[in-house]
Structure formats: structure tokens, C-alpha cells
Amino acid sequence: MHDRRSFLKRALAAPAAAAPLAARSHAPGAPPGGRRRRIIWNNDGDDLRFMAFGLGRLWTADNPEAIKLPERYSSAAQFLDLRMTPLAGTQVDSLFYCGHFNWSVWDFPRDRIAALGPDPLKPVVDFAHKNGMEFIFSIRMNDCHSSFGFQGPAWSEPFRLANPQLLQANVTREEFERRFLAWAKGDSTEHPLADVLKRRSRDSRDYQSWSAYDYAHPEVRAYFLSVVAEACRRYDLEGIELDWLRHPFFFRFGQERRYIPVMRDFVRQVRSTLDEHGKRRGRPILLAARVPDSPESALAIGLDPETWMADGCVDLLIAGNGNAPFSAAFSEWVRIGHAHKVPVYGSLDRMEKVLGRPEAVRAAAYRAWQEGVDGIYFFNHFIPAEYGTLREVGEPARIERMNKLYRIDPDYSRKQNFTIAPGQLPLHFSFAAGPAAARLKLDMADRPETAARTALLTQWSGKPESFRISWKVNGQSPDEPDKVAHESGNSRWLAYPTKALTKGLNRFQVIIEPRERAATPALTLEQVRVSIDYS
Q1: What would the mean pLDDT of 498-516 be, rounded to a whole number?
Q2: b vs e for 322-336, b when ≥16 Cβ sit within 10 Å of the residue's Cβ?
Q3: Which of 48, 200, 483, 492 is deepest in the core (most CB within 10 A)?
Q4: Coil, helix or strand at residue 115
Q5: Please, what's the largest Cα pairwise distance for the chain?
């Protein structure tokens, strides 16, 4: 019993040089020039923009106060040490850096980042190359942080302020100046869509997308094309990433599919621009695209990556938002990408807090490898103390027999802008009509029957002790549960040791009945995880 409880408590506890590029033609699993990208690591650039605009504290996935920035960077080394120097010697083969979100980095205010030199991004390029990594300049194709709140850099970028007619808000210049401008400049705290927020939620499409550019306007496409060209002119880069997921609003609602051909032509222009600059420097410049979880959700927002690949425009495909790492259908993108000789990388987003756990990172990465991806892509994975998995997960054989933590993905379909499939949790149970029941499923890449211990872990809000809760795992009853941990509020974890788990699709059934007929308290199943311990 002692070993079993120790295992369950651990399961719930808190949280190389690469070859130079050559030709663009390649086969599945062998990216351009034979370059192997075990891990692609994306830095979203807040370590530059937060400093440049004096925002004080550096964002991390768990604690926005975890890193307090200095008044200014005193050296390039100080900047790199914050989150990039610890990447040296890991399995990271490609460093993607967000050089454009609303501003481009070369237009940042220089006072606080003067120590980085004439161009603040050059130290990043040099660091990548010194450590055998390729450098990819990442562009957010429609960052909408400007929709949520005044954040200094979000609205001081001149192009957006000067062109309200290009935004999805569909307002005249006069209305923009009357309703929006004071808030956009920080002179007023009254959000121009406060009425929308009262009637709906922050996750509503209108609230998120109103300040997004409308790509139906040729001026918008020309603007982003100019960013691509300038990045190629300035940096000794290996490629450009078009990040279509920060944020995925490109046309007004209902117009998306109509403009699929327009986006196809735009991507062709990007490819042509890269080829022109690559010809001048005597080597190709690659084009990476970060796209939604499925081809269907991409088409729904006006994007057709399959055609881009068929046209020979895209060299690397980054599959998925990364917030549903245990249910994203990477295999579909792998099938399409490999049919066009394009490597596909599975996306994992550290914003999903469970991915702060090394066991969960291993499980998500191992599942992606089993889906056939050519490498792992990390987004928002910024905490150096958690970089241990960057030395492991780029080699699936290495993590095959390491402890894992799987999770049934929650529902982010609204929060993440409708580009990922609906999740299965949380589940809210009502007992007015008698016992309640639910069915869930989870795909796993491991072979749990070869592990020393496995368990079904469930988190509840309410008082699960007031109910008779019966689980079936692949048709079999697990052992009696242990109450392993208490989390914040009235949240409870129950853990069920079980030998019924298997590689592939696992099916779970739960039946819940109040212990007292007169009592019908609320109960919510918040999370379901599966722990696999090989040690």
C-alpha cells in the first residue's frame, strides 16, 4: 500500500549540431538538405517587446510575476540568458523567433534594448547559428492582443492606427476616432466593446477579432509581404514562419471560404519573395506554416495548406494549436504533408499547464511521434527549469520506457477561436432524474501492460464522497480509489489503480449516484488523467 500511494502521489504532484541547408526537395522524414529537426523551439518574443516597451515583468505560463525584467538590458548575454542560453546542448535543432506581432522588432523603441546593438534580433540569430540551430523568423499573421486591452505595443504600431478601414471592426474612420481611438491610445479605460463583453464572454469571436486585419484588403496582404521581404533583407535566416494561429481571424465572419483563393495567391507571393532573396544569397529560404489542428478547421478560416503544399510553396508544416496535445489528429496532416514531401511537426503549447510536468510532456511528444510526425514543435515553453525534456523528447526511443502522464483534453474549442475540435471535459452532472453516466475515450501511444504501475486519475469539483462513483476502464472495473490530493477550493482527486489500460484507444465509463436520495448536490468531473510508471 505504501508503494502504491507513493506512486499515486508522485503522479499528481505539482508541477546537437545540425547539417547546413541545401536543396529544397526532400522526402518524408528527411527535411530539406537532410537537416534533422528533432525539436523546434518557438520564442514568442516577449523577452524583447516587454523590455522595449517597459512592461516590467516577463510572462510565464504559470506565474506572470515569475520573472521581473530589469530596467534595461545591459548586454546581449543578459537578454539571451533569460531563456535562450539554456537551450544550448539540448535536442533543439531549430530556433523560431517571433519577430513580428503588431510591430516588427526593427521598429521597437531602442532605449531599454540599446545594448543589443543596431538590430535587437541579431544576437538571437548569432546564438542560433553558434549552437548549430537554424534560425526561422516567425510572423504572427494577425495578432489580436490589441482587441483585449491597451498593452503599449499592441496599439502604438502606426499602420494599424492609420488604417482602421482595414480592420474587421467594420467602422468608419470617424466612428473609430470617436469610439475607439481614446482607448487604443491608453487615454481611456472604457473598452469600446464593453457592451459585447457584458452580453457574451471574452472568448466570443466579436470581442477577439474586431481589431484583426481583414485580408480581403490587398493593402493588408502587401503589408505582411513587406515584413517578409524586410526580414529576409536584414537577417542571415534559414526561413520564415507564417504563424496562422496567433490569432486565426483573417476575414469577416462568413466570408472565410470565399477568400481561400486569395490566401493561396498570397502564399504564392510569399514563396516568390523567398525565392528571390534565396537566389541572391545563394541558398534557399524555407517557408514554414503553423496551421490549425485539422484540414477542415483550416479551410473554415480561409486557409488551404494542402494546396499550398501541392503548389510547392511550403517546406515545413507545423500541425496544430498545441492546446489539445492528446487528441490532435497529427496523422492526418502527416499523411497530407508526406504526400507532398513536406515534413510535419507536432505542436505542444506550454500554456496548457499540464505540460509543465515532464511526464506529460513525454506522453504528448511520444503520442505525436507515434502519429508519424517528423519532430516536435514547442510553443510557449519558456521556463528554463523545465528544459529537461528538451534533452529527451526529440528521440522517441529514448522516452519509450520513461514515465508518462496522459490527459483527456478539455474543451478549448471556443477559447481557442474554434480551430480545434471540441474537448470532452469538464462534465457537469445533474441527478434530478436519477443516476448520471458518461463515456470518455483516450488514445495512448504507450504499452501500459508493460509498466510497473498504471492508474486512472480523476479530479472533481464538489463532494465526490457524497456519491457512489463507478468506473469501467475498457469494460473492467479498476481497484478502489485513493483520495490522493486536495487542490484549491473544493477540488478533489481520486485515483484508481488499474491493469485494464492498453495501447491505442481506451474507453472509460462512469456512473454516478448520490448516496442519499434526497440530496442532489452538484458535481463536476474536471480532469481525467492516466499515469504510467515504468520504474
Answers
A1: 95
A2: bbbbbbbbbbbbbeb
A3: 48
A4: helix
A5: 79
For the chain, the residue count is 535
Residue 6's pLDDT is: 56
What is the H or E stretch that residue 470 is in? strand 467-473
What mean pLDDT comes out for the span 492-506?
94
3-state helix, strand, coil in the chain (%, to 5): 35, 25, 40
For residue range 133-179, what is the model confidence (pLDDT) as tens digits? 999 999 999 988 888 765 566 777 788 888 999 999 888 888 888 88
Q: What is the fold, at CATH topology level, of the domain defined by 33-162+203-401?
A: TIM Barrel (3.20.20)
Which of 462, 456, 430, 431 is CA-nearest to residue 526? 462
**What's the whole-number average pLDDT of the chain?**
87
Is-contact 458 525, C-beta < 8 A? Answer: yes
Give the number of other CB atoms < 10 A from CB of residue 20.
11
Pair 504, 443: CB distance under 8 Å = yes
Whether the CB-CB separation of 295 and 332 falls below 8 Å is answered with yes
Per residue in 346-379, pLDDT (tens digit) is 999 987 778 889 999 999 999 999 999 999 999 9
Amino acid at 189: T
Query: Tens of pLDDT along 185-242?
Result: 888 888 888 776 666 666 677 778 888 999 999 999 999 999 999 999 999 999 999 9
Rounded to an integer, what distance in angstroms lies between the CA atom of residue 98 and that of residue 137?
6
In the prediction, which pLDDT does 32 show?
Answer: 45
CB neighbour list of residue 209: distance below 8 Å, 6 or more residues apart = 144, 147, 168, 247, 249, 253
> What pLDDT does residue 313 have?
98
Element (H, E) at 119: none
Within its chain, how far is the Cα of 410 from the centroid? 14
Average pLDDT over residues 440-444: 98
State the Cα–Cα distance between residues 373 and 330, nearest whole angstrom: 7
**Residue 27, amino acid:** A
Strands 67-68 and 504-514: unpaired
**Cα 265 to Cα 118: distance, rounded to the nearest angstrom:** 35
| Nearest of 248, 210, 213 to residue 419 by alpha carbon | 248
d(CA 150, CA 140) in angstroms, rounded, equals: 18
- The per-residue pLDDT for range 20-53, each reduced to its tens digit, is 333 344 343 445 445 899 999 999 999 998 899 8
Check whether 67 has a pLDDT greater than 80. no
Q: Which fold has domain 427-533?
A: Jelly Rolls (2.60.120)
Domain boundaries, the chain: 33-162+203-401, 427-533
Cell numbers given for 528 = 481525467
Instruction: Tell me the β-bridge partners of 461.
Output: 491, 524
- The 10 Å CB-count burial string (b at 16+, else e) for 30-68 is ebbbebbbbbbbbbbbbbbbbbbbeeeebbbbeeeeebe
Lowest average pLDDT, out of 145-149, 397-401, 433-437, goes to 145-149
CA distances to 121, 225, 232, 237 from 136, in Å:
12, 16, 10, 6
